[in-house]
Amino acid sequence: MNKALNKFIIIITSLPAFILGLGTFATASTFEVVDTSQSDCFDTSGVISCPTPGTSFYGQDATYHGQQPNYTLSSDNLTVLDIVTGLTWLVSPDTDGDGILESPEDKLSWWDAMDHPATLNANNFGGFNDWRVPTIKELYSLMDFRGIDPSGYEGNTSGLIPFIDTDFFSFEYGNEGADERIIDSQYWSSNEYVSTTMNGDHTVFGVNFADGRIKGYGTSLHGNDKVSFVLCCRGNTDYGVNDFVDNGDGTVTDTASGLMWQQSDSGYGMTWEDGLAHAENLVIAGHDDWRLPNAKELQIILDYNRSPSTDGSAAIDPLFSCTAITDEGGNQNFPSYWTGTTHANWTSSPGEAAAYICFGEALGWMRSPFPPFNYSLMDVHGAGSQRSDPKIGDPSDWPYGRGPQGDVIRIYNFVRCVRNATTVSGVGDEVPGNRSEIRMQCAPNPFNPTTTIAFSVPESGPVELSIFNLAGHNIRTLVNTVMDSGEHSIHWDGRSRKALTMPSGTYFARLKSGTETKVIKMILAK
Q: What is the separation of C-alpha 359 from the centre of its chain, rounded to a whole number of angstroms?
């Protein structure tokens, strides 16, 4: 892109959306994030009827329907075209070419996996000669959250559902007869972890389509090369390559994916249910259509070239801010973030856990195999992993984590919200398209430190009027009661309960009446 044009775009898009009068800065995206395909709604235990707005658990993955997967199988049944991403995939990771997918016979070391595309290209496999090992973002685009996590399950796998669409892709669980676990169906990506895991192991990220996770896997295991499946792809090399723009109003737009993100995070951890409610009630930059991202949306903004141990930062572009935390070992680290996606399992409580993304180290408690069997806390899977936590509970009930690597259980994870950048939310006087029947204004504006907010509601019913700061935090609820239809007003003193004047700057008043919402901007000027 021309440097002068690039500079112009940055200047324009750094202005708040309500100044531009556009809602968002409209640009053509270079890729779309494929939906997770999760259609069931869950509480903290099992499947429920999908909630309605304002009720518990509203805003989870199945509430929002993104771009659904759209696959086309080639006439020779060798390749699959993903129409959404523009990527073409092998149908099967059958690397020995016998036409039968078997585990572990078709698994390769990472080094051999990286060489495998050369063999495909030399043979013009499927009529193409540009096959490659996928990036972790490309590979994760295939993740299908209709899957069921079989961790701990033993026996016949015929009733299990993997995390990949078996109508188009061949799949095999791990072979228990060959001393594998059922969940041993990991697939290599081309992304090496910029740090190391365990005790300094060279690590590569992979997707496990058996248990529905991203983890960093050491390339050696018990002194031998670790082997996993490899599913090669070709085509759109732009998938997962971000193009972030700082909008200057507490939001960041990824013009590549068409998603707008909260620039800061929630600043504290919360349960999954509270995370959903936090997102649904968030107001930032005049937008009130924020949501908790699904697992694929959140994973797409990871920066796999960064990690706490190599950069002293979270695995995300520095345009974003991440709250530093003190981890379970007393060291500075960075949070994991909730997604709206339930990580369903095979037990009697299939909805007890939700997926989260590690922007800090994916810690685990590893137990020594020798007396006195002490536990050591270490980065077991790498910054950039996707795992899952119970939605509720007490983290102290898992003092040494869960699973074979002792995955740390936090339960109270952080939140970073998302919205569609191409959608005008229509929630402010400054945003075109606002057709709300409720009315609201404040005078004086700017003010210091008091103003009067006048509003009207078309019919009697519950009314809520709250004040938000620029970061989207609810700093005061002025009205939360049933009111008659007609004109009303309320006086707001822009000072805290301790009579200390609040910082000067931009604030938003949000009025909710029935199904209508109105948001106006107010400026506290000293």
A: 10
